[in-house]
Amino acid sequence: MSESSRSIPARGRAREEVLADLERIATSDVDWHAGRAFSLVYHASDEHSALLKAAYTRFFSENGLNPLAFESLRRFEAEVVAMTATMLHGGPEAAGTMTSGGSESIMMAVKTYRDWGRAKLGVERPELVLPASAHPAFFKACHYLMLEPVVVPLTDDFRADVAAMGAAVTDQTVAVVGSAPCYPYGVLDPIEEIGALAAERGVGFHVDGCLGGFLLPWVERLGHPVAPWDFRVDGVTSISADVHKYGFAAKGASTITYRDADLRRHQFYVSTDWVGGIYISPTAAGTRPGGAIAAAWAALQTMGEDGYLELAERIVDLGSRMIDGIEAIPGLRVLGEPVMRSVFAFASDDEQVNIFAVGDVLRRKGWHPDKQIRPDALHMMITTPHVDVVEPFLADLAEAVETVRGHPELATQGEAAMYGMLSEMPDEQQGDADDFVLQVLDGLYRPEG
Ligand SMILES: Cc1ncc(COP(=O)(O)O)c(C=O)c1O
pLDDT tens for residues 140-176? Predict the structure, then answer.
């Protein structure tokens, strides 16, 4: 390996050597394939991944920026959007685009409502009303696009408080938000009630189905209770759904679908007076990787409804086994009612068991559940690589709980101490916490050596 990675090597290195470096450097990554991670990677099977890679590399160089140059990509994108809209019960007028991921889909929705609100409602200081459990991508979009996020609390079951939402809507509100489901607890917001509110007040309603968009339809078809949440609900005007999560596409693939093309029009950007000629851009990205678009199309085509149903059944079963096992451990409790069973958080009811310390002990045993606050909890996302780890994980979890019960000092060490501080931090000190994390982030991107 080269001594320093601070400059491009003066002479290009041998390909084999570089490929070997990639493998060696990857050995420090979390072992998601062995089911050790509970976020970030959604994997159907090695066979399916091989198909995705073939589709991706076939369109590795093609660029979805100009739909007139690559008819293939235009067609794949239009069909991915149409298949998604049909799955979400959109009508014949439903229209959308693909994006690089959930955050970009959400950013596009927020931009659309900002510009729609300006054009149709005369709103000058746009506000977005959203529950505390909404994904940070909404806050980021508001930050980038200069909207005011208006946060409403959750009810005891961790769902959006619709009455509070109603009270938060003003004459500057352009849209309200609900999640299907939200990431922190995996619970479904009361979409029908929020839809009624949005329709009555004449504002947009974005349902964030980034996580559940490609799983909930099959969970419902399997006969599990799922309250209506898609375009069948009056008042829902747009839905984001990520193909690269439970759609099992390659990373870089999400969809944003609107009830009709008139609304989508506010998402597009065109420039007709640039010296370089007419420039059209449907989403935030300029260049759009053809591979991600083609692989998403290939995923939907090869998986089929039968494939998604079969996977959904396995995932719900795995999640249920995990949830039942966790609730059987004295002192632990799963928060709310996780609608897909595969995404949920669990907390400690026992004062002697600090849940963050349990997370630290699990990490030392090679497991990587994420930590979250209000209430303090550990977060899990289950997918097929977890098939063989349910029992070993539950055994290690039960042991970790006992270890923490016997060692109260663990709550004051490691990440547990940091999360404990975050969890109790008063609002006025939030800026200090942000600064601290920014400093850590600066450091993380420094090269080795
Ligand atoms: C509910 C929800 N919305 C949005 C996102 C953002 O998606 P991405 O990470 O693809 O930008 C996520 C990611 O986990 C999510 O769970």
Answer: 999 999 999 999 999 999 999 999 999 999 999 999 9
Distance 212 CA to ligand 1 centre (A): 10
Phi, psi angle pair for 375, to nearest 5°:
-85, 165
Pocket probe mutation, ligand 1, options 103, 255, 372, max atoms within 8 Å of Cβ: 103
CB of 135 within 6 A of ligand 1: the answer is yes
Q: Taking phi first (over 0 means left), then psi (-120 to 50 degrees means alpha), and beta for anything else, what does residue 287 get? A: beta
* Entry pTM: 0.96
Cα–Cα distance for residue pair 21/49, rounded to 1 Å: 23
CA distances (Å), origin 59, targets 279, 298, 376: 22, 12, 44
Each residue of 300-312: pLDDT tens digit?
999 999 999 999 9
Is 213 touching ligand 1 by the criterion CB < 6 Å?
Answer: no
Pick 55-302's CATH classification: 3.40.190.10, 3.40.50.920, 3.30.450.20, 3.40.640.10: 3.40.640.10
Domain boundaries of the chain, sorted by first residue: 55-302, 305-426
CATH class of the domain at 305-426 = alpha beta
Give the chain's mean pLDDT.
95
